[in-house]
């Protein structure tokens, strides 16, 4: 059996429900405003920290080292060409003496590399371990290029051009990787 | 137990005087099954660096030994793995020892971002 509810009672209830929901709107909207404010403050703080980190990285690590990086790659190129000249003119029939000279010429690059690692890469390690690991790997690639070139005994113009090209490709990769913490 | 002696001569291309490249080191590691040796507590390995080698690059060292270093930690690693040199040239030997120190230093530098899960990988 259907129960008939008087229309006046039904509408009166609806109106009171609508009123109650409306009463909560100001409270709800102010909560949203406060939440947005908090989120905004967090984002501002986060961005400021990121900006400070970026400035720190630029001033302490990147700018002072750019000259040093350019010098290092230039010196590696010069030293390797000099070493190639020495090895080219050396009489390689005396194998033992030749190997001693080759070891010495390779060690010239390695001394330069160790200085570079110590001066440029080691200070990065504490704060940017992941990036510095990548940079160490770039230097390892450079070391492989130089040692393989000197060991190849092919010091023709084409081989020299390939080696110099590899040096500067490694430099480009290293600079790109050095730039990573600023992104 | 006497150490296992591994001659590196056969892992070098005949004309080359240098050990270079991480992939090359990793290939030698694979062939020598160093993962199994790492699991075998108490075993020791001596690598014999042949005569006529002019450079032992960190890239090769890391390809060959970095997983062992990571698994064992510095102390255990140094107890397990060592190198001997066939050369009688004192200067060359010094330079090669310096190369190995570079390799170890690079391994230490690469040992970043270890997670707690690493202890389960042993």
Explain what the structure shows.
The complex is a heterodimer of chains A (183) and B (122). In chain A, helix 1 packs antiparallel against helix 4 and helix 3 runs antiparallel to helix 4. Chain A is built from 4 helices and no strands. Chain A starts with 6 loop residues before the first helix and ends with a helix. Helices cover 88% and strands 0% of the residues of chain A. Chain A is rod-shaped. Chain A is an all-alpha fold. With 122 residues, chain B is of the alpha/beta class. Chain B is built from 4 helices and 5 strands, in the order E-E-H-H-E-E-H-E-H. In chain B, strands 1-3-5 form a 3-stranded parallel beta sheet. A two-stranded parallel sheet of chain B has the order 2-4. Classes of the chains: A mainly alpha (183), B alpha/beta (122).
Summarize the topology.
The complex is a heterodimer of chains A (183) and B (122).
Chain A: H1 7-89, H2 95-125, H3 129-152, H4 157-179
Helix pairs in contact in A: 1-2, 1-4, 2-3, 3-4
Chain B: E1 4-7, E2 18-19, H1 22-32, H2 34-39, E3 45-49, E4 55-56, H3 58-80, E5 81-85, H4 90-110
Parallel strand pairs in B: 1-3, 2-4, 3-5
């Amino acid at each position: 059996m259907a129960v008939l509810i008087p229309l006046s009672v039904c509408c009166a209830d609806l109106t009171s429900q609508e009123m109650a929901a409306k009463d909560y709107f100001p409270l709800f909207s102010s909560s949203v405003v406060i939440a947005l404010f908090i989120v905004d403050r967090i984002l501002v703080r986060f961005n400021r920290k990121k900006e400070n980190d970026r400035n720190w990285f630029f001033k302490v690590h990147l700018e002072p080292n750019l000259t040093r990086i350019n010098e290092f790659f230039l010196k590696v190129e010069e030293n390797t060409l000099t070493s190639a000249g020495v090895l080219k003119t050396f009489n390689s029939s005396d194998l033992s003496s030749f190997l001693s000279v080759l070891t010495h010429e390779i060690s010239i690059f390695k001394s330069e590399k160790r200085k570079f690692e110590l001066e440029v890469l080691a200070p990065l390690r504490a704060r940017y371990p992941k990036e510095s690991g990548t940079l160490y790997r770039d230097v390892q690639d450079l070391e492989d290029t130089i040692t393989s070139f000197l060991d190849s005994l092919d010091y023709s113009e084409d081989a020299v051009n390939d080696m110099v090209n590899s040096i500067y490709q490694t430099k480009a990769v290293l600079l790109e990787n050095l730039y990573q913490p600023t992104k | 137990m006497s150490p296992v002696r591994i001659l590196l001569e056969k892992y070098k291309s005949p004309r080359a005087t240098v050990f270079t490249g991480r992939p090359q080191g990793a290939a030698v590691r694979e062939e020598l099954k160093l993962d199994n040796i790492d699991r075998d507590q108490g075993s020791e390995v001596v690598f014999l660096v042949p005569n006529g080698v002019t450079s032992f690059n960190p890239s090769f060292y890391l390809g060959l030994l970095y997983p062992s270093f990571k698994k064992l930690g510095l102390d255990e690693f140094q107890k397990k793995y060592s190198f001997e040199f066939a050369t009688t040239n004192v200067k060359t030997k010094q330079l090669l020892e310096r190369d190995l120190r570079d390799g170890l230093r690079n391994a230490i530098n690469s040992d970043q971002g270890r997670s707690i899960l690493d202890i389960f990988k042993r």
